[in-house]
């Protein structure tokens, strides 16, 4: 169902919206009230919070964790773990002469795709909206993509991780994955 250009991608309401991860998003959905958007796209959301001790020796402190998982209806032939790229990753890529994952040099330089597999992964990672959502989520933790789900984790010793700061880009990533699935040709078997 085509949406007007000014409609919120999650709830479908018209009006003035912010542009988030490549989509128009109303302030209600942007602040984490995602129920109508989840239902509309056939998504389910789970969250888990915990507290753990981080550090070692005399430098121990407590950190609060948040994990959000969004399941989506389409099963994609792709699995991956996305995280921030380090100098060691770049050295390893130079040594092994690995191929870039996306079409954007900024994405390829900032994001390391670890434990990747699946025929659909290249198509998915080349989508600009997917790249934007992954970059936003990886800035505060890691992102895992599985068969019909995507999950993000945050750990913070400064403040309790905000639900909406993780859930909103993760839900938008799931919507991008749903739309990417339409671009992937069905198996010819």
Total helical segments? 7
Count of distinct strands: 8
Query: Which structural class should the secondary elements be placed in?
Result: alpha+beta
Kindly estimate the percentage of residues that lie in beta strands according to DSSP. Answer: 25-35%
Quick check: average pLDDT?
80
- Range of helix content: 25-40%
Number of domain modules:
1
End-to-end distance: 29 Å
Which sequence of SSEs, written as H and E, runs from N to C?
EEHHEEEHHEHHEEH
- What characteristic shape results from the CA principal axes? globular
Strand count, sense and barrel status of the largest sheet are:
6 strands, antiparallel
Query: Segments where pLDDT lies below 50 for 5+ residues?
Result: none
Give the tags:
189 residues; alpha+beta; six-stranded antiparallel β-sheet; two-stranded antiparallel sheet; 7 helices; 8 strands; 33% helix
Describe the protein's architecture and organization.
This protein is α+β, with helices and mostly antiparallel strands. It has one domain. 33% of the residues lie in helices and 29% in strands. The protein has 7 helices and 8 strands. The strands form 2 sheets. The protein has a 6-stranded antiparallel sheet with strand order 3-4-8-7-5-6. A two-stranded antiparallel sheet has the order 1-2. Helix 6 runs antiparallel to helix 7. The two termini are 29 Å apart. The model has no long low-confidence stretch (mean pLDDT 80).
Secondary structure blueprint with pairings:
Layout: E1 18-20, E2 23-25, H1 27-30, H2 35-41, E3 44-54, E4 61-71, E5 79-84, H3 87-96, H4 105-110, E6 111-117, H5 121-125, H6 128-138, E7 141-146, E8 149-156, H7 163-181
Antiparallel strand pairs: 1-2, 3-4, 4-8, 5-6, 5-7, 7-8
Helix pairs in contact: 6-7
């Amino acid at each position: 169902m085509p949406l007007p250009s000014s409609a919120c991608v999650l709830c479908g309401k018209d009006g003035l919206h912010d542009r988030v991860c490549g989509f128009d998003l109303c302030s209600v959905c942007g602040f984490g009230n995602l129920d109508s958007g989840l239902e509309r796209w056939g998504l389910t959301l789970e969250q888990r919070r915990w507290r753990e001790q981080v550090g070692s020796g005399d430098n121990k402190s407590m950190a609060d964790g948040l994990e959000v998982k969004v399941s989506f209806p389409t099963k994609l032939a792709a699995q991956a773990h996305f995280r921030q790229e380090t100098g060691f990753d770049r050295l390893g890529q130079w040594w092994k002469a690995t191929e870039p994952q996306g079409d954007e040099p900024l994405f390829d330089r900032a994001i390391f795709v670890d434990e990747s597999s699946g025929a659909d992964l290249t198509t998915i990672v080349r989508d600009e909206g997917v790249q934007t959502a992954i970059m936003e989520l990886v800035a505060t933790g890691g992102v895992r993509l599985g068969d019909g789900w995507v999950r993000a984790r945050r750990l913070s010793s400064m403040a309790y991780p905000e639900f909406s700061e993780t859930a909103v880009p993760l839900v938008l990533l799931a919507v991008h994955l749903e739309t990417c699935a339409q671009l992937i040709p069905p198996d010819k078997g």
